[in-house]
Amino acid sequence: MENARSTYALLDQYEHRLKAVAGLLNVTENTLRNYLAESGIKVKRANADNPKSPAIRLFDLPKIFEFADYRRRKNSRGTEGKRPVVVAVEIIKGGTAKTTTTGELAVQLQLFGLKVLAIDLDIQANLTHILGYEADLSVEEAEKFGVSHAAIVTGTFATLCKPLLDRRRAVSVDAETLLKRPFGPFGPALIPSDTFFGDLEIAIATTQGPRELTFQKFFRESQEGRIPGLNVGDYDVVIMDCPPHVSFVATNAIAAADIIIAPVRMEAFSVKGLSKLITEIETLREAYPNNVRQPELVILPAYYSINLTRNARMQDKLSQYPGCVAPTLISQSEEFPKSLESYLPLTLTKPRCEAVKQYQAFADFMYKKIRERAKSQKTEGTLL
Q: What's the domain count of the chain?
């Protein structure tokens, strides 16, 4: 279909000026102008479409990620490790900004210069949604909404992982055919989810052997070239959006993680979910002392409000976890629900708003932590 979109999101509605793009890339405007001069990357002017408009530069979303890639290559900003750093975003509680954090962080880390693979592990497919896709869009509906086949979710992590649970089968699906790149070749990649993802939970539950180590096996097989179309070693970081309840899928993500990010809504029930998560980590370590690495826990205070009494009470509870609480927080904002309507992270729709700046500060913190972790893994020379 002519002029059909490759994502459900209306990407062409979002173009940003030089100042906003410099902020996203965390560089000065002069530095970005130098990149423009050196890279040869062409950016359109506003008057190209409307002669009456000023001749300002307008950066579309794929172009912004192209400049991030140029800076990566220019300044060697990748991790250069032997394997990716695996991050699980998990807490045993819904409504804590878990998916929002995964989506914003995936985009921001790619803008910081890391190659990111995001994996949606939740049957609700909210991460798939926030990164530009309607998970259950059919071929028949695609034409109605003006999107191409590329916008349709044709497979999930379950599609790739389930064959590993049956020793008689090999992974025959080419992962590249189901992988999504919503912002072009220089943006983060996505393994989406849909309503059939729950099949993986059943498959893991009924398999024999160490069920909690299925994801570890998948990543290892991928890096060794046995998952057609996907080598996780091509990425600096794999970030997984986990389901908000105890399940084999969530447990597998925890067991495979180097870093676990736990967004904690500043309320009592969310803190209880954190306790359950820590218990799950300890149980795994006891069950598989030689196979489950010591993940680093990062607690991210979210939905921070002006209710000072409640905040003080929750901060007192988080003080039980010294060294684990991130040095930044995410405030409660009406902008996040609005961004969901656009099927895009807030970082890309309103890059200069306060909530994005808070996530940028967290991404900077995580970028440094990921590079440190990658450096230690390179020294150890270990595979997943």
A: 1
Backbone angles phi and psi of 33, in degrees to 5:
-65, -40
Query: pLDDT in tens for each of the 384 residues of the chain?
Result: 557 899 999 999 999 999 999 999 999 999 999 999 999 999 999 888 778 778 899 999 999 999 999 999 998 777 665 689 999 999 988 788 899 999 999 999 999 999 999 999 999 999 999 999 999 999 889 989 999 999 999 999 999 999 888 766 667 789 999 999 999 999 999 999 999 999 999 999 998 889 999 999 999 999 999 999 999 999 999 999 999 888 999 999 999 999 999 998 876 666 788 889 999 999 999 999 988 878 999 999 987 766 556 566 777 778 888 899 999 989 888 888 888 889 999 999 999 999 999 999 999 999 999 999 998 876 554 444
For residue 303, give both structure tokens. 């939905």
Q: Does any domain span residue 314?
A: yes
As a 3-state breakdown, the chain gives helix, strand, coil percent values, each rounded to 5, of 50, 10, 40
User: Domain containing 91 — which CATH number?
Assistant: 3.40.50.300
- Domain around 153: 79-380
Distance CA 166, CA 29 (A): 54
Residue 51 lies in a domain: no
Is position 48 within any domain? no
Q: Would the pTM count as exceeding 0.90?
A: yes
Tokens at 298, concatenated: 């990062």
d(CA 302, CA 85): 23
